[in-house]
């Protein structure tokens, strides 16, 4: 997650985010070379005393400063298009998670498991503990297995929302009446934080997203424990 005075991007928690960071650094280096060259040329023009009353055109330099920007744009566009298609690809997902945006909380459904769904609200400030982060922690975290391709399906029940996890490189609009999907894979165990990044009303700032990445065995145990608890709850209701 982002910390105080952190001027760089968050550490990538997925292969896509790592590639996005590489592309960001690649583009910054190209920009640095352009700025350095332009500043050098401007400084040289300001300080030299050479003049020419008869130089009316320079076809060579005009050709050079027309072709060079086009070549630079190709060096930026090629990795950008590659990343764009990689982010849009769905690689045989191991599981599907559905996120539904509400004013102002998220609902989640594990489509591969029966009756595994819950609402996720922000923990109020007065209930915050030392182990939680203000405005970022939720009462029910999303639990996902690491190193597994996951398909996320996003929609909304009322107004526009946006499901965003910066460290995963995922930002998907939640639109009422429409399903948007994206895929990602988490590299390591840990807790990832995100927020709604679409202005959706008065409490837009208070609908965070919290993902807990665990191993595959821990995820299976978590799903089994939820199934057993739901069966016990049904037996209590019947009796």
Automatic annotation (TrEMBL):
CDD domains from the UniProt entry: CcO_II_C
InterPro entries with a match to the protein in the record: CcO_II, CcO_II-like_C, CcO_II_C, Copper_CuA, Cupredoxin, Cyt_c_oxidase_su2, Cyt_c_oxidase_su2_TM_dom, Cyt_c_oxidase_su2_TM_sf
Named cofactor requirement(s): Cu cation
Function according to Swiss-Prot or TrEMBL: Component of the cytochrome c oxidase, the last enzyme in the mitochondrial electron transport chain which drives oxidative phosphorylation. The respiratory chain contains 3 multisubunit complexes succinate dehydrogenase (complex II, CII), ubiquinol-cytochrome c oxidoreductase (cytochrome b-c1 complex, complex III, CIII) and cytochrome c oxidase (complex IV, CIV), that cooperate to transfer electrons derived from NADH and succinate to molecular oxygen, creating an electrochemical gradient over the inner membrane that drives transmembrane transport and the ATP synthase.
Residue ranges annotated for the Cytochrome oxidase subunit II transmembrane region profile domain, each copy included: 1-91
Protein name: Cytochrome c oxidase subunit 2
Cofactor detail note: Binds a copper A center.
Topology relative to the membrane: Multi-pass membrane protein
Statement: the UniProt record of this protein carries the keyword Transcription regulation: no
GO CC entries: mitochondrial inner membrane
Domain named Cytochrome oxidase subunit II copper A binding: residues: 92-225
Keyword RNA-binding: no
Family annotation (PANTHER family): CYTOCHROME C OXIDASE SUBUNIT 2, CYTOCHROME C OXIDASE, SUBUNIT II
Primary subcellular site in the record, as a coarse category: mitochondrion
Domain of life: Eukaryota
Keywords: Copper, Electron transport, Magnesium, Membrane, Metal-binding, Mitochondrion, Mitochondrion inner membrane, Respiratory chain, Translocase, Transmembrane, Transmembrane helix, Transport
Similarity-based family: Belongs to the cytochrome c oxidase subunit 2 family.
An annotated GO BP: ATP synthesis coupled electron transport
Pfam families: COX2 (PF00116), COX2_TM (PF02790)
Upper taxonomic lineage: Eukaryota, Metazoa, Ecdysozoa, Arthropoda, Hexapoda
Organism expressing this protein natively: Reticulitermes labralis
Locations listed in the record: Mitochondrion inner membrane
Listed GO MF terms: copper ion binding; cytochrome-c oxidase activity; oxidoreductase activity
């Amino acid at each position: 997650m982002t910390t105080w005075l952190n001027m760089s991007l968050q550490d990538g928690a997925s292969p896509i985010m790592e590639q996005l960071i590489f592309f960001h650094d690649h583009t910054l280096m190209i920009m640095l070379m352009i700025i350095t060259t332009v500043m050098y040329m401007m400084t040289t023009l300001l300080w030299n005393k050479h003049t020419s009353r008869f130089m009316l055109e320079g076809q060579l330099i005009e050709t050079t400063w027309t072709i060079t920007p086009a070549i630079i744009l190709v060096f930026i566009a090629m990795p950008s298009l590659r990343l764009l298609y990689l982010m849009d690809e769905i690689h045989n997902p191991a599981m599907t998670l559905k996120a539904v945006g509400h004013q102002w909380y998220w609902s989640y459904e594990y489509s591969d498991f029966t009756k595994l769904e819950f609402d996720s609200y922000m923990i109020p400030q007065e209930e915050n503990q030392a182990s939680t982060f203000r405005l970022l922690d939720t009462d029910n975290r999303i639990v996902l297995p690491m190193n597994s391709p996951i398909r996320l399906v996003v929609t909304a029940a009322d107004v526009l929302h946006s499901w965003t996890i910066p460290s995963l490189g995922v930002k998907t609009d939640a639109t009422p009446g429409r399903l948007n999907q994206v895929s990602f894979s988490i590299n390591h165990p840990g807790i990832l934080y995100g927020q709604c990044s679409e202005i959706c009303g008065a409490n837009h700032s208070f609908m965070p997203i919290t993902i807990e990445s665990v191993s595959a065995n821990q995820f299976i145990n978590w799903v089994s424990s939820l199934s057993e608890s739901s069966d016990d709850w049904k037996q209590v209701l019947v009796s």
